[in-house]
Amino acid sequence: MAEQGTDSAFVAFERVQKSYDGETLVVKDLNLSMPKGEFLTMLGPSGSGKTTCLMMLAGFETATHGEIRLDGVSINNIPPHKRGIGMVFQNYALFPHMTVAENLSFPLEVRKIGKSDREAKVKRALDMVQMGAFGGRRPAQLSGGQQQRIALARALVFEPELVLMDEPLGALDKQLREHMQFEITRLAHELGITVVYVTHDQTEALTMSDRVAVFNDGRIQQLDPPDVLYEKPANSFVAQFIGENNTLEGVVTRIEGETCVVRLDDGEELDATPVNVTTVGERTRVSIRPERVEFNRDRLKPGAHTLKAEVLEFIYMGDIFRTRLKVAGNEDFVIKTRNAPDQVRLEPGTEIEIGWLPQDCRALDAS
Amino acid sequence: MSTASGPVLAADGTPLKRSLARALRVQKIRALLLIAPLLLFVLVSFVAPIADMLFRSVENQIVAETLPRTTKALRSWDPEAQELPDEAVFEAAYYDIFIAAERKQHTRLGSRLNYEQTGMSSLFRKSGRGLDDIGEVYQDQFKDLDRNWDEPEPWVELMGAPSWVAALQDWEKGQPLPPFALRDGVADLLPLTAREYALFARFTQQEDGKSPLKEEPWTAVHTALYTDLAAADLSGYDGPRAEMLRAADAAVDAPGFETVRFRDGFAEIDEDWLSPDVWRTIQIYSPAYTSGYFLNAVDMQKTPEGVGLRDERERIYGLLFKRTMFMSLMITFSCILLAYPVAYLLANLPMRSANLLMILVLLPFWTSLLVRTSAWKVMLQQQGVINDTLVWLGLVDDAARLVMINNQLGTIIAMTHILLPFMILPMYSVMSTIPPSYVRAAKSLGASNWTAFWRVYFPQSVPGIGAGSILVFILAIGYYITPEIVGGTTGTFISNRIAYHISSSLNWGLAAALGTILLGVVLVLYWAYDRIVGIDNVKLGG
Question: Are A111 and B448 within 8 A, CB to CB?
Answer without folding.
Answer: no
